[in-house]
Design goal:
With 573 residues, this protein is of the alpha+beta class. The chain has three domains: 254 residues, Rhopdopsin 7-helix transmembrane proteins, CATH 1.20.1070; 142 residues, Galactose-binding domain-like (Jelly Rolls, Sandwich); 55 residues, Orthogonal Bundle (Arc Repressor Mutant, subunit A). Helix content is 60%, strand content 14%. The protein contains 16 helices and 13 strands. The strands form three sheets. The protein has a six-stranded antiparallel beta sheet, with no helix packed on it. Helix 8 packs antiparallel against helix 9 and helix 13 crosses helix 14. The protein is elongated and about 120 Å long.
Length: 573
Amino acid sequence: MAITVTLGQRITDRQNWAEKDSVKEILLIVVSLQVLAAALPARADDALPGRRIDLSGRWKITLEDRKDFAGKDFDDSSWDAIDLPGSFMSYARKLGRQSGTAWVRKTFRIGEGSGRPSLGLILGRIGNADETYFNGSKIGGLGRFPPGAHSSWNHPRNYLVPSGLINYGGDNTVAVRISYWYYGDVVGALALADLDAWSRDRTWRYFFYIINPFLIISIALLLLIIFLSFYIARPSEQEYLFYSLQILFGFFIVYDLCAFWNIYPSLFFRFQTIGFSWVGINVVHIIFLHRIYDLERKRIEIFLWTFLALWTVGVFFLAESDPFTYGIALIASCTSLGIYHLACHFYALYRRRPYAGIFGLFAVEVVCCSMHDSFVYVSKITGYPISLFGHDFTSMLFPYGAFLLFTGTALVLVFRFLALRDEVDGLNQTMERYIIENALLQREKEEAGAKRKPGYRRVISPETEEKIERIIGYINENYSESLSREGLAASVDLHPDNLSKLFNAHKKMRIGDYINGLRVREAASLLVSSDRSVIEIAFAVGFESLRTFNRAFAREIKTTPEQYRKNPPASPQ
């Protein structure tokens, strides 16, 4: 006879199934897609198929601003030189400038072309706004200059150069007017390419730098609506609230990368919002981990809320006096929280908390993306390039980490919600069965009290007695196995507490005593008939420890196992 598992075991099995199979498979797919997506922008910058003229290298630069700087014949020999792609903020700070307008120019030669076709200019990404001229004619621009400044620092600059502007067989000049405010750089590939290569590059990079963040925002807003409704339905489950707050903070960070519309009153307020969101998402994500892993860390959460409050004051009321210092301090303090993020995951893995293994799949990526982008911001603010093992920190990875965080966490929360719902349904069914069984038992006792004769006592019905006999039969055959009251009760559809009462009424002893009695008698036989050690015999008959075996043996046989082996009784026990 097979003993079925208990309700709690069934719930655990469902959770384990969800964690080990469905959720992990889905998250592995998500991880793979996001690793691929994160790698593609780098390819978009570096791999431009087709014919092209490389424009990277030495450019001329000035921090003055005059309209005639765009002219093809303007003499820029007195200007300073700078290497692009790269940041010019360190150059600007040497001249005492944190914001303003810069001009960069490059003159190069184009050979004779067959048919004199139009070409495409690739200027990477420019912070914050630009106006681009080719041989004195404006061919494009993104963002807005002051007043009403608007940054398009992460938008690819791909501008069409009509054939009529191109001096084939002679010198040509590209002049770019740039608005900078603590960000001032040109990053990515710089080239003049044929239209096929230019078109492929424009489509490729526009999708991954602009369309992809908008897709992530769309998915995140949908998840926000879903899990806010979950929180409204179950306000005691605070993980849904903190998950939603992560999406709200993450929205402003991701939108900053792809923004077309200026939703801020000023460029400085935009930077303030990004700084506040960066602190907020780090804080609420940690508190979310506390909820999902059931970590009782009130003091740490008090520190986190204080940390958020102090930085809110610093960002919105104090940072204007010295944005550079506050920006570096904010990045450093938020980066340090990433170490605690990882510590929470490692602790949960060590404690075998539910879903810790799943979160481990993307925890490292999310934290690494956050730390990676901290280096990107430091490089932009300071103007000094940061490189590690040949990798330049120029492209933001947070959208991909955010997508993994939002979708992966959403999957875990959905499965967790379903598991909790099943658990509640199961507990309700168990409680209903328990009430019915108690009512039947009480009625049986009352009937037995009214009908019994002197010397006769009947407490349980024949149907219930038959269930107890089935339990006894199974115990007699399997007493050396691991048995539990819950498992035995589930096998005959009884509540464990009722089974104990009924078994005691039927056998005049507890279930555990009955099982131990069988095990002790088997052990006594083995002590006499074999030379196996006492501990081996204890484990063989089903005891989980030598101490428990010794106590049960002494209670049943009235002596110790060693004394019993030395002086066995004449007749079997």
